[in-house]
Structures are given as structure tokens and as C-alpha cells.
């Protein structure tokens, strides 16, 4: 039987379903989880959405947000664990390796449930019974839309579902600007608009919900924490724990900062290093020709997409950026393939 037919059969009677996504969920991670959850609930399933950590408050408008369990919260872990243990089906959305969901990863690996992985990252780990995966897709939300249509249920996509899915596609394409903004992206969002998603309303909820502290933090970061290595076509921000504390930074406050570095004329590789409780979190962004996911995977224990990736470092902030600078210098020929890098 075709994998998708088996998958369809698996969902043909009411099931207990557990949906999870990667740490620090973004709009694609949460939008795909809640978009799918709202659809599965309509199909008569019992659904629990569990995130490994918290997520930015500018995502709280999504339908179903109030029922999401945060596994990192002691008061919600027990309920989340019970839902995972009782699940007939587990959906893993917007991540390709079980290390991206912290402790939930090993629990999922050991589970006897039917495991589904829906994702658009490179090099998926082989942990699922059914994988709906394409690196051609700009967002996991695009794949969820396609899958619902393939299952013959387009008419079940209501305004709430359309809004969740639209949000993920909007943010994973950087507001329809990144190189992953394809014809299919526009065709899918056109359908989602038809089904009730309001583009300017969703953009407003996500992009225009800054706190004064966040805006001041961005101003501070750009004026005091931006380093430009013009000869290497590289620019980065290095943000310390103290900086984050000074501006009372909340989850999501550094989101998008790295794009300011990439917006500089002539810059093809941008990075953001932020010092967190558990080490240095790194975001990489690049222009279309430069592959940052390989760089992140080779040197910073990370991965992601060609032009948007992430990683981590256990060194100090200072040592991490020193290492980064020398790695870029050392590997400039492979990073900037076919690019004129004027280091001389
Ligand atoms: P962001 O910079 O927005 O946190 O992440 C950009 C992209 O890289 C996302 O698709 C995200 O899933 C991926 N990514 C971020 N951090 C990591 C990481 O530590 N490991 C892996 N494999 N992917 C990451
Ligand atoms: Mn995504």
C-alpha cells in the first residue's frame, strides 16, 4: 500500500493524537501544529499539542493556543507526558531530527505510536512511520495545506486553520522575500486568503506587536553590537546575557534581528550570537548563493535551510565569535562559491 494510503487509513477512525514541534517554536512550527490540530479535531480525533519550550507571545492569537502544553513547565509536564504515552499517533512537525525537541525526543523514539514527520528541513533522520517531507516547500505550513488537500478535505479548512497556515508561510519566507518564495507559495497563500486568512491582519499580529523595550533593544543592538566584516561579506550581532537582561528581553525579542545584518549592501552571510542560560544560540542567514545550513552543521552542531539555519556553541560568547570569524575566513572559497570575495 502507498505510504499516504496507510497514513489515511491510520486516521480513518477517531484516534488519540499528539502533535509536537521544535524548541522555541516560530510561526511555522506553531502554525503547522495548530493548523493541523484544528483540522484533526474537526475530523473527530482527540488532539494534544505539546511544545518542548515556550514561544513568543505574538503567536498567542492562533486558535488552540490556550490548550497548548509547554513541556518545559513543571505544572504541564505530567499532562503532556500522559498525552504522549496514550497517543495512537504522534505528529512531529517542522523538524527533521529528534534532538530538536529536547527530552521529548527519546520519549518519541521509544513510543509504539504511529509516528508521522512533516517537515521541510534537509537530511531528515529516519524515525517516522510516515514522512511527508520536501525541501522544496518554503514552510511546513505549506506541506500541511497540501496534505489536507490530498486527503480530500480542503473544504474543512476554515478561517482559523487558514490563518495558522498563512502565518507560517509568511514568516518562513521572510514576508514573501526569501529565495524560497516560489510560485507554489503564492498559489497556496492565495487559496488560504480565499479560505479566510487576512494577510494584513496576520502581518499586524506578528510584525507589529513590539514592546518599547524590544524596539529599544533592536536600536541598541544595531548601534552597539553589530560587527561588519566587509571583506568577508559577513556581518554579525553578538548579544550577551547582560544585554538581554538590560532590555528585559522576552522569548521572540531577538527574532528578525539577524536580518538587519543581512540587509546591508554587499553582505551575503549574517549571524546572530545570543548568550542564553544553556550556551550560545546562533542564527545564520545568507543570500541565495551561500549555503549556511552546511556551515551550521559542520561547525556549530546545527542545521536548517540553505539560507536560514541555526546552531549552538558551548564556548564563551567571545571564543564563539572568534572561532566564527576564523572559520569564515578559512572557508570563504567554499562558502562564497562563484562569488568574488575581495579579501586581498
Ligand atoms: P532561527 O535562526 O530562526 O532560530 O532558525 C533558522 C532555521 O534553522 C530554522 O529552520 C530552524 O529550524 C533551524 N535551526 C535553528 N537552530 C537549529 C539547531 O540548533 N539545529 C538544527 N538542526 N536546526 C536549527
Ligand atoms: Mn519551518
UniProtKB/TrEMBL annotation:
SUPFAM superfamilies xrefs: DHH phosphoesterases
Domain DDH: 16-169
Top-level taxonomy: Bacteria, Pseudomonadati, Bacteroidota, Cytophagia, Cytophagales
Domain DHHA1, first and last residues per copy: 250-329
Record field: transmembrane: none
Record PANTHER family: BIFUNCTIONAL OLIGORIBONUCLEASE AND PAP PHOSPHATASE NRNA
GO molecular function terms noted in the UniProt entry: nucleic acid binding
Name under which the protein is recorded: Phosphoesterase RecJ domain-containing protein
Amino acid at each position: 500500500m502507498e505510504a499516504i494510503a496507510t497514513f489515511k487509513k491510520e486516521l480513518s477512525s477517531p484516534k488519540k493524537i499528539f502533535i509536537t514541534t521544535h524548541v522555541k517554536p516560530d510561526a511555522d512550527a506553531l502554525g503547522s501544529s495548530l493548523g493541523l490540530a484544528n483540522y484533526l479535531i474537526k475530523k473527530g480525533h482527540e488532539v494534544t499539542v505539546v511544545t518542548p519550550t515556550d514561544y513568543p507571545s505574538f503567536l498567542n492569537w492562533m486558535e488552540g493556543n490556550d490548550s497548548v502544553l509547554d513541556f518545559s513547565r513543571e505544572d504541564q509536564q505530567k499532562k503532556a507526558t500522559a498525552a504522549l504515552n496514550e497517543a495512537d499517533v504522534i505528529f512531529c512537525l517542522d523538524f527533521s531530527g529528534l534532538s530538536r525537541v529536547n527530552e521529548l525526543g527519546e520519549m518519541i523514539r521509544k513510543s509504539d505510536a504511529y509516528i508521522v514527520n512533516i517537515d521541510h528541513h534537509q537530511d531528515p533522520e529516519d524515525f517516522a512511520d510516515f514522512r511527508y517531507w520536501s525541501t522544496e516547500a518554503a514552510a511546513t505550513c505549506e506541506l500541511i495545506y497540501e496534505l489536507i488537500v490530498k486527503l480530500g478535505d480542503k473544504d474543512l479548512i476554515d478561517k482559523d486553520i487558514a490563518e495558522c497556515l498563512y502565518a507560517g508561510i509568511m514568516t518562513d519566507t521572510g514576508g514573501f522575500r526569501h529565495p524560497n518564495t516560489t510560485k507554489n507559495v503564492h498559489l497556496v497563500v492565495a487559496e488560504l486568503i480565499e479560505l479566510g486568512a487576512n494577510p494584513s491582519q496576520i502581518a499586524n499580529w506578528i510584525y507589529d506587536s513590539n514592546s518599547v523595550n524590544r524596539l529599544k533593544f533592536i536600536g541598541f543592538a544595531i548601534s552597539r553590537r553589530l560587527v561588519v566584516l566587509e571583506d568577508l561579506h559577513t556581518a554579525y550581532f553578538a548579544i550577551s546575557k547582560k544585554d538581554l537582561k538590560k532590555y528585559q528581553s522576552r522569548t521572540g525579542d531577538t527574532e528578525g534581528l539577524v536580518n538587519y545584518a543581512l540587509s546591508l549592501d554587499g553582505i551575503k552571510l549574517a549571524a546572530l550570537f545570543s548568550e542564553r542560560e544553556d550556551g550560545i544560540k546562533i542564527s545564520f542567514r545568507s543570500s541565495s548563493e551561500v549555503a549556511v545550513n552546511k556551515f551550521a552543521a559542520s561547525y556549530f552542531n546545527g542545521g536548517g535551510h540553505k539560507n536560514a539555519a541555526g546552531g549552538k556553541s558551548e564556548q564563551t560568547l567571545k571564543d564563539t565569535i572568534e572561532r566564527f570569524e576564523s572559520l569564515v575566513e578559512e572557508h570563504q572559497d567554499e562558502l562564497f562559491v562563484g562569488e568574488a570575495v575581495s579579501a586581498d
